[in-house]
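new request in #modeling-help
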Amino acid sequence: MQEQYNFKEIENKWQQYWEQQEIYKVEDLSERPKYYCLEMFPYPSGKLHMGHVRNYSIGDVVARCKSMQGYDVLHPMGWDAFGLPAENAAIKHGIPPATWTWDNIAHMRSQLKQLGLSYDWQREVATCHPEYYKWGQWLFLQLYKKGLCYKKHARVNWCPDCATVLANEQVVEGACERCSSTVVQKQLDQWFFRITEYSQRLLDDLKRLPGWPDKVKTMQENWIGRSEGAELTFKVDGTEDEITVFTTRPDTVYGVTYMVLAAEHPLVSKLSAGTPEEAAVTQFVNRVGKQTELARTSSEKEGVFIGAYCINPFNGEKIPILTANYVLYHYGTGAVMGVPAHDERDFEFAKKYNLPIKVVIYPKENQELRLEEMTEAYTQDGVMANSGPFSGTPNRQGIRKVIQYAEEQGVGRGIINYRLRDWLISRQRYWGNPIPIVYCEKCGALPVPDHQLPVMLPTDVEFKPTGESPLKSRPDFVNTTCPECGGPAQRETDTMDTFVDSSWYFLRYTSPRDGEQAWDKEKADRWMGVDQYIGGVEHAILHLLYSRFFTKVFYDLGLLSVDEPFDNLLTQGMVLKDGTKMSKSKGNVVSPEEIIARYGADTARLFILFAAPPERDLEWSDRGVEGSHRFLNRVWRLVYSVKDQVIGAPAVDANKNYVGVHKEMRRLTHYAMKKVTEDVTGRFNFNTAISTIMELVNGIHTYRDKVAEVERDASILAEAINSTIILLTPFAPHIAEELWAATGHQGSVHKEPWPVFDPAALVEDEVEIVVQINGKVRERLNVSATLNPAELQQYVMELESVKALITGKQVVKIIPVPGKLINIVVK
RNA sequence: GCCGAAGUGGCGGAACUGGCAGACGCACUGGACUCAAAAUCCAGCGGUGUAACAACCGUGUGGGUUCGACUCCCACCUUCGGCACCA
């Protein structure tokens, strides 16, 4: 062992050793308990950033600790390798996307290896590899054959900069999630996955995920957006047309004073045709129809009368039909009944356009609500009024009764609506997984037969400045033969959204090299679900919802035995510098490469785990990094200074009655075992786990310095040193290996069992008790730890110092808490 | 506007079940070692106050429950995150 801590040498040495010994290789099937530890795989953008370092350091601590606790740990890594940046690089620098991607992967893989992460690299997957995307295509076809995948001409979000459509989930405040350009609406033929079919299950099963943060579950719940209500049908006056509305308040149906259709609603132009209002309506629809949802919903409510009326099926009233910007075509039925008295939006709208307002809910029976006095809609519960036979019914009950009546009369029904929309998966891009569909003039759209998979993505491509996918101009790709009739056919040139690729990678890891199937069910069943999933909260909806959807579909197809992919989820916070997210534009980026070169991977890992608990944002601190590095140096020097006494020391005799500093040293050691284990495997508070190890190291320092070498108990010292090294292993694996070897041990410390504390070693003879008078600390004293409350009270109350504190006062009450304090209440 | 999380020294954070607020680290101050510096080691480090003790104040603000509140309850303020005409 060298006197100096030479991290560079050590880290290289052990990384090579791990690779040669295949120490992190995991068996597919064994008798040992399994643990699947997974971190969100990265997009190979070129270099690791600190967010990656944090994500993967957290995962590595969990994986290593679980492995040392005797689990078979599946801890894989791979690449979310399709995506737009590769194409942008190609356009900008002329490098083919495949070359660019594979180069980045090679570099980032070596960076991950430099961090000393315990991945089983033999399981590495890359979504752009034909052996991976082949099964993505196969899975697409399984959904297609099950009717969960369809093509539709639809109004969709289009990002002009990315030159592709986007899923709703990828549109953030009207802008492209990726490049922030304003998203426009286009009518296009697009492929969808029928995720809405799973709305209720996706919602219900959130309850079965106690290991997920509430925040993420709430976000998914809001996204799914379930709402209970009714569909009611109104006949259009003088025609055969009908308007169906969705409402959550059927109890207010007697208060309808107008009807509103979305601008896109087909009846708008049909009903206004030939009326005096036609020109105004057309103008309005043209103007509003061009606006994005965001533009519409952020501007003031406006609308126009379309020149037609409909009939309220409940009271026969004739009410005007309008079209307005505040009604969304894609939600519900694209039509809304206007009940201004009991809906805020309707109230605002009715006031603006002088539409009649009719009160049909009173706060309480006989407590009339006067229209003249209303300054806002009354949206709370109450009693139905002016509602024919329903008047006097409490409105909650009324909801059910009105629905029942509507169903009997054939004018409506109870229904549940969801905000969730089908997942638009086709992208007009090149660098993605080709959709395995061919179009034959005679036979129509057909799935590519399984034996022809994968539809290979050509890699020798040229990009034109038009932004058009290079696949379209490749006759060798487009032209094929029809699998049905053998005639000429054309391939689909759209590729899949990369979220499709990342929605099942956790399954492929269980059989990464299987050439016969997407995964081996037996293996997948052994490893799934993921015991711990770790990643950024930015994927709370997109990736996590899609993955849940896929898992449920695969469960239904019999491909899996679980229907939720991730049992426990940890969402880590961002890495900040100077209070804001690191970014090139702000010039506050700290590169992992630089930190590793300067201080080593162990220091980088230790700091990033120590600086904050994982769920919180982490403020980067160069000083803090130095502090972590200093700590590792301190551990190194400590071990160096006592190694000769530690090597060959006999094991601690747990039955021996140690006293004084020796006992205290042993107590500290076992306390650290207990605390670190709890913090790492229970609450994932790595910062406090590390601070506990620091306390142990400080304690050993004191023991070494205060106790002469001949007086030291070699067994206790060895136990303390060995425990320090083992407890440090998940956080700083390289230095731990080196110190383990230096203290006379054979083999990898990672193969050592995780320590289990001895409760007997934690027992103290004496404890410090605080004496409080009226809740204020007045004195501290050491008492025997075995005293029960009565004995404690007696002992304390007889002390002269305590008597002095309460002289002249009347003792009202005494609360003794053994091991902690005694509170004397006086007057 | 609605929902959620958080607010603790100069800074990052700790206090897990209502029981000594500030563990651990950073920064800073003083000392040891050194010709000197770095490194290292030792000590101090919330505020007011005192010669020093004592005492008092102190976990966003105001109230409450309790022998006792960073922790529980009510109201409010601030910051961050999510949702936002969803009928």
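bot summary: The domain at 617-762 of chain A is CATH 1.10.730.10 (Isoleucyl-tRNA Synthetase; Domain 1).
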